[in-house]
Amino acid sequence: MKFQILSHAGLAITSNGVCLVCDPWLIGSTYWRSWWNYPPVSRELIASLKPDFIYLTHVHWDHFQGVSLRKFGTSIPIVIPREPRGRMRRDLNDMGFSNVTELRHGQSLYLSDDFKITSYHFDFLLDSSLIIETEGYTLFNANDTKVMGAPLRQILTHHPRIDFVFRSHSSANPRVCFEILDDPTVVVDEQAHYAKDFALFACAVPARYAIPFASNHCYLHKETFHFNDFVTTPRMVADYFKTHHIESPQVRIMVSGDYWSDTEGFVVTGHDYFENRQKHLDEYLGSKKAILEELYEREAQATITKQVLERYFAGVFKAMPYLWRRLYRNNSVLYVLTAGDNSYFFEVDFYRKEVREVSEYDDQSHPIQIHTSVAVMRHCIASDLFSHLTISKRVRYRVTLEKKSLLTLLNRFFALYEYEYLPIRRILNRRFFTSWLSRWREIYLYAQIGKDIMLGRAFDYARYLPSLSRSEQVRDHRG
Predict the structure, then answer these.
(1) Residue 194 and residue 169 in contact, taking contact as beta carbons nearer than 8 Å
(2) Residue 309: which CATH number?
(3) How far is CA 189 from CA 170, 185, 308, 433, in A?
(4) Is the pLDDT of residue 186 over 90?
(5) Which of 214, 298, 416, 440 could join 421 in a cystine, given CB atoms 3.0 to 4.6 angstroms apart?
(6) What is the pTM assigned to this prediction?
(7) Could you tell me if 384 and 397 are in contact, meaning their C-beta atoms sit under 8 angstroms apart?
């Protein structure tokens, strides 16, 4: 058995002549040239891949990238979680992929006689993790899922002996994109807790080895390059383990091309990607300068009209429930859209269901602002994926502290709308209810969290992880 790190969240597992590839973003960039694999994936590695199956954890573009998927041909068998609404399958079908298998929560699939995968779903908008069992080894690809509570206990009950756990360790959320107009000193995100959360999860699983995973990307676009300073690197995770004297599980830093096999153990190339990160980032940026300059020139030519926004937001207005719209009474959202030297200003009044173009704005009269480029805005509209705007970080939210919750709620609405939870009539079907019935433990978890918040307890990730004493009982299952 062998597993190999392919990219940011790309993983290949080979056993008994069968190769499974997970989340193959391998080629180029994603999120409008904002995200790039770090370090880059070699052409030789890409050319060597001959997967028999592909598993996609969720629909975000750093896991679900069309350019990379098409490299393997549209007949390749693709396995995905069975979403409550099924957007992933429809998107794949629209891309020409027809050999698609959906796995229900907790459902297993044998890729060969001794190669089994089991999909576990988590998050209201659906992410998934994957358990891979083959040749006596168990791999837990937690990826981006922050699974905890009863859902995690379900996984550990069915798979109590984990050899390798893979999990993200840095931020993909938009918190660092917020600027608080009336108090710029407000801390919008804390980098330190991501390494801690990784360690808490790895210790609670438990596993022999923990691999920081699904966060090895960087930002090269001129609008987002500065966000490299906020990335939690695998080296930071390893340092956290060392500082806190965590010896089990053993944390291993692996980058694209590194692998482990049952005959060779860990084969890790010598590199200084995290020790001399700034040097490598500057060189990476220089190597992509021509591509980025071409993009900047193209984006500078983009235009947009009020009619384009009116057509899109007409559907949004219909889908937003009245009580949700009422929150935005006298709270219009200003979109500031730029293209080169040109700027466009649009007020979106969700309560009155209106889009208004304005000639100028100021922070006092517009305390809720969303700044992005015209090109990105147009693509969000065309792909019906505004929720990806937050991940891209090609956005600035300028808002007063009082109104910040309204922007957070708006982002939540777009996610529900684009994942087809809204309007509510979309979820009144058997598929939706049966999907959630099998995930009753997750509903119970949310009820627990809600109860704790109502009792005045701040959310604490560690509170919902299995007891570490249980972890210690199976820590040494392979000596």
Answers:
(1) yes
(2) 3.30.1050.10
(3) 11, 12, 34, 35
(4) no
(5) 416
(6) 0.95
(7) no
Helix (H/G/I), strand (E/B), else coil: 178: strand
Find residue 146's DSSP bridge partners.
none
**3-state secondary structure (DSSP) of residue 116:** strand
Whether residue 324 has pLDDT greater than 80: yes
pLDDT in tens, 228-246: 999 999 999 999 999 999 9
Query: In which order are the strands placed within the sheet that holds 53-55?
Result: 100-103, 78-81, 53-55, 18-22, 11-15, 2-5, 259-261, 265-267
Note if the bond before 206 is cis, omega within 30 degrees.
Answer: yes
Residue 477 has pLDDT above 70, yes or no: no
Average pLDDT over residues 459-464: 93
Expressed as residue numbers, the domain containing 269 is 2-291+468-474
Number of domains in the chain: 2
Question: Please, what's the b/e burial string for 63-87 (b: 16 or more CB within 10 A of its CB; e: otherwise)?
Answer: bbbbebbeebeeebbbbbbbbbbbb
Positive or negative CA dihedral for 200, 205, 208, 211? negative
pLDDT of residue 266: 98
Beta bridge partners of 166: 141, 211
* Per-residue model confidence (pLDDT) at position 188: 73
* Helix ranges restricted to H, 215-305: 234-243, 277-287, 289-300
457 in a structural domain: no
Whose structure tokens read 């597992």? 13
Q: Are 255 and 373 part of one and the same domain?
A: no
User: Residue 271: its pLDDT value, please?
Assistant: 87
